[in-house]
Structures are given as C-alpha cells and as structure tokens.
Amino acid sequence: METIRTGRVWKFGDHISTDLMMPGHRVLTNPDLSVEEAAKFCMEANRPGWAEGEVQPGDILVAGINFGCGSSRNGSQSLKALNIAAVLAESVSRIHLRNAVNSGLPTLVAPGITSFVEEGQSLEVNIVTGEVKNLDTGAVLQAEAWEEGTPPHDILMAGGLDAYMKAKLKERGLVST
Amino acid sequence: MGMTIAEKILAAHAGADTATPGQYLWCKVDATSGHRLPDLEALGVDQVWDPDRVFMVDDHQAPPPTIAVANQVKELRRLIKKYQIKNYFEYGRGGILHQVFAEHGMYAPGDLVAQCDSHSTSGGVFNACVTNANLDAVHVLAFGELWFRVPESVRVVLNGTLPAWCVGKDVILKIASELGTDYGLYKSIEYVGPVASQMSLAQRWTICNMGVEVGAKFAMFEADEKTDEFLAERVNRPYKHVTADPDASYEAEYEFDLSDLTPMVARPGDPGNGVPVESVKAERVKVDQAFLGSCTNARLEDLEVAARVLKGRQVHPDVRMLVSPSSQEVFGEALKAGYLETLFEAGALIEHSTCGPCYGGHLGVLGDGETCISSSNRNFRGRMGSPLANVWLASPATVAASAIAGEIVDPREYL
Q: Pick from A94, A152, A174: which is nearest to B185 by CB?
C-alpha cells in the first residue's frame, strides 16, 4: 500500500450519499455492469460529466460532513475504479468508512479539510500518519489516522478485506491453498 | 463505572468484563445474512461457521425484472443449498429482510448481529445490537466473528404524550430535523422515556430503522412486554432484557417533549429536511405517486391506518398509490383483516412485499420531474429513480391523506 498520495483536489459538499456514488436505478438494477461501467454513473445526479472525463487518475476527493451517508452499497468501489487516490472528509458515515477500508481505498476523517483546500489545489496525504499538506499554500493539517494494530489499520494495509481474509483463512487452516 | 446497553452487549460478545468507547474488540456474532455467500465461495471456503444462524431472502428486485437479475438469484439459490442455509425464504413466503428475519426469530434482546443492508439498525427495536456489515459480512460467514469499535452512546429521552395521529415516523423526522442527520454518527443511540414506552413495537421499529438515517451504528429501545409478545412464538432460545447501568456514561443526552408534535414531512433531498405538514399546505405540492411501503412503514398497523383514512374514499385521479407490505406475513394479515380490500377499493395498487420502489429499483420508479410522497426512509436526489424527481417522506397516514387530496396534506383533516 502506497503511503504517500499526491493529487489534485475535487471538492464536494455535505451529506454526499452512496445513492449519488452508485445510483440504484443505474447500477443495482443491472448486475451485469462491470465495476468500471458502474463508476461512470458516479455523482451523475449532482455533478454530471464528472465521472466521464473530468476526474483523472490520482485525483483526491475532498468532502464535507457525513460523506457516504445512506445505503450500504459500496461507493468506494466506484471511486476506486475512477482511480481516486484518497478521500478526505469532515466526517464519514460508519458504513461507508468500513466499505472504504475493506476496499483498500484510503479514506480519512479530516476535520477542517473543507476550509483547508480549494478545488484544483494539490494535496500530499500520508495515509498512515494522517498528515495532509496543501502543496499550493504550504499549510499542514492533521487528519485522523488508524492506530497501528487496530483491525481497520491491518485490513487497509493488507490492501483490503480480500487479501486480509486470504491470509487469515490460511492461518486458521480453513483453506488449503 | 457502569455500562450502556451497547457496551454490555459488545463486552459480553468479546468475552470481556467491560467495553470502553473507542476500544477495538473482536466479537462473536450471533447471526448474519447470506448476501456474501458468493464471496465466501470465491475465497474457497466450504462451509459457513453456523448454517442455522445465516438468514437470507431476495428482496430488492423480487421477483426478477431482467434475465441478469434472474441469473443472480439462481446463483444465490445454488449457494443456499451448497452451504445448507435453512433460513432462506422464497418469493411468496418472504418479503423485506428486516421484517422477515425478525418474524423468523433472528433477533432477541442481548444479541449482536452484523448483516448486509444499511437498514439493519432496525433490529435494535428488539433491545439488541444489530448493525450493517457489508463486504465484511463474509468475515462473519467464515469465522462467526467481526471487529467493532465500541461506540460512544447517546440517550434520547422522549417525554410527554404522543398526540393522536402522530406516530414513530413523525418522531424520527422531528428528531432528525432538529439534531441533524449526522447526530448519531458512529454512535449507539438509546431511545427512552414515557413516549418510548407508550409507542407500539411497530412505531419504535420505524425509529430504529431510520437509525442509519441519523448515522447510527446501533439504534435501540429497552425491551418490555410488547417486545416479548412479538418474540414469544418466534424465538425459542432463552434471552434476557439488557438495560443500561444507572451510572452508565453517555456522550450526550437529548430531550424532546412530544406532546405538541404535529404530523411531519421531510422535504426532498435529505431525511433531515423535516417540517410540520401544515407548514407546506400553502405550497399546494401536487403528488404523482403515493408510496406506502418499505422496511420503514409497511407493517400491519401502518396498513390499518392507511385503510382507515381511505375507507369510503378514492385515490385522486391524478395519483397512483402503491402499497407494498413489509413482508408476506404482514400481507396475509392485512388481507385477512380486510385492509387490503379497503385499499384496493380506494384505487390503490397492491404490490407484494418488496424493496423495489424505495430505492428506485422497480415496481414504482419515478420519472423526470415527478413527485412522490413516501412512507419510506430516504429522499436523496435520484433515490427513487430520476435525479429530477422529488421525494417527500411522511407517515402512512400522511401518505394516504395526500393520495386522496392529490397534494401534500395534513392527515388530521381526513380523519
């Protein structure tokens, strides 16, 4: 897992729901859609065109309070498919935060982030220590980092739940390979 | 120091004497849902930790509207057989998972359950810690355990006496409008007070169901004779009511006097946009669709109140009213009680029990610019279909009254 992530910022508001990241009528109704195809509908209702050409691989998403509220559908899957490098928000819904950890998408609770950075500026984020640098202004902000040794830290560092589970199943002798 | 309900339940499932907010615990989990069986198979695991404690029903697009969905459900049935899951409920005998699982004894006081679907906070009505696990439900399927961060607990005291025609839905819309839809973020909410005792189990259920709409990890009530009555024929294992210690520590306590509450609606966009219905009357909001359904408000007493409002009246010519009971068991009870007949005669479309319309899946998707008054839980943009549609949330009585009027009205004028 790459510890330092640098990228250009896209800013979103408060209460960005997983319905916005993964619209039910587009994605849930169509189980044959690939992850990449589903990601094209990300933020379609609130920011048309963003997922289809505007956002670039390595960009960073910054949001307000309660990011990922609502449904348990995995919005991080779409953000990851768009190659978002990291997500920073004033606060994150519990379900979305767990999905992000399990998907291996660094998502940090960063109080003060909304006024700390403007859209289009660049950030450097250390996903382990939680240190966030605004490369345009030079300012530094401390985001909340997962404490070493906690389950979310271990799962994220393993690259997500799938890799974590494979190692654990092997260790407990529940799978042969 | 004393413990809250969540602290007691988490400690007991971690084999610990205490649990402190902020602490990470690996806990034994009492039950989960089968949504992640495909992931379990992909990981090469041949059995679930306890087939008796895995529950599954297909509810979101049920029965399938497309070949792709039909193939997905066909695959699910294969996995149900492979992993010998007994608590699987086929179309006609199922419904929406939160209702169906409860009817089949999945939840009891003191339980810790982590299952798929965000509205899993519903199960807290049984004095249990019930919450969502999504991707990591596969961890429960394999090991019967999951990690939890012990949440801070908050107490919400519901004082006074609930006025006639105000129900649990009006209470939670009021709370969300005052405290915000993130007031319960990561927290365990305990609802207590005189109104908590007065309310029926179904009304408390609505409040727990919308626990996730205020960000909560758990949303709970204490257990009483109403809880035991529901569980009596359904749970055949011993259980004990869990209460907080008198010296338990809460991060915050909020008090509401509900004696002057009036019916509420949440304006489109966010469940926290609640206002009294009477305050929007002058706007004359025309309604295209009235939806009485979902895991939030489609239990027997919800159908009963709608039938009472609509008895001898007709759904407005410009409105289609969709009714989908919360489970097939509820469907049967409402059928026998005559509520469905009343709703049918009023011109409502009676659907089977499904999640479909609530999340814009099928059986009631909204078109551009349409307006829906809904007894469901979310009114995010695009939630029920078109991003250009508007969804207003309200109680079953308000939905029924608005269906008659063709615009959003206060149900007290129709009773």
A: A94
* Test the B interface: residue of A21, A28, A144 with most B CBs within 10 Å: A28
The H-or-E segment that residue B219 falls in is strand B218-221
Cβ neighbours of B185 in A, within 8 Å = 66, 91, 93-94
- Residue-wise pLDDT tens digits, B340-351: 999 999 999 999
Cα four-point dihedral sign B128, B39, A27, A81: positive
Contact check, Cβ <8 Å, A25/B365? yes
**Max Cα-Cα span within chain A:** 53
Over residues A36-58, the pLDDT tens digits come to 999 999 999 999 999 999 999 99
Mean confidence (pLDDT) of chain A: 96
CB A145 within 8 A of CB B15: no
Q: Residue A24 has what pLDDT?
A: 86
Query: How far is Cα B370 from Cα B368, in angstroms, rounded to an integer?
Result: 6
B346 and B339 in contact (C-beta within 8 Å)?
A: no
The residues of chain B scoring below 50 in pLDDT are none
User: CB of B64 within 8 A of CB of B99?
Assistant: no
Antiparallel, parallel or unpaired: β B349-350 and B274-276: unpaired
Nearest CB among B45, B61, B378 relative to A169 is that of: B45
- Using CA atoms, how far residue A38 sits from A18, A34, A35, A73, B46, in Å, is 13, 6, 5, 12, 30
For residue A117, what are the contacts with CB-CB under 8 A and spacing of at least 6? Answer: A9, A11, A62, A123, A134
Question: Which superfamily, per CATH, for A4-145?
Answer: Aconitase, domain 4 (3.20.19.10)
Nearest residue to B105 via CA among B238, B293, B197: B238
Longest dimension (CA), chain B: 62
Which one is predicted more confidently, B57 or A29? B57
% of residues, chain A, pLDDT over 70: 99
Phi, psi of B407 (to 5 degrees): -150, 165
- Whether B378 sits inside 8 A of A103 (CB atoms) is no
The boundaries of every CATH 3.30.499.10 domain in chain B are 5-256, 264-414
> Rounded to whole angstroms, how far apart are CA atoms B355 and B190?
27
Q: Would you tell me how many other CB atoms lie within 10 Å of the CB of residue B246?
A: 6
Tokens encoding B36: 């992640």
Q: How confident is the model at residue A28 (pLDDT cuts 50, 70, 90)?
A: confident
Structure tokens at B135: 């991707």
Cβ distance B44 to A177 less than 8 Å, yes or no, reads yes
Q: Is the whole-model pTM more than 0.95?
A: yes
The class of domain B5-256 in CATH terms is: alpha beta
Domain-by-domain residue ranges, chain A? 4-145
- The confidence band for A177, taking pLDDT boundaries of 50, 70 and 90, is low
Q: How many CA atoms lie within 13 A of A44 on its CB side?
A: 22
Nearest-by-Cβ selection for A93 from B133, B139, B185: B185
Per CATH, which fold does B264-414 belong to?
Aconitase; domain 3 (3.30.499)
CB contact under 8 A, A66 and B185: yes
Q: Does A133 touch chain B (CB under 8 A)?
A: no
Is the preceding peptide bond at B109 cis, omega within 30 degrees of 0? no
When CB atoms are compared, the residue of A17, A74, A150 closest to B24 is A150
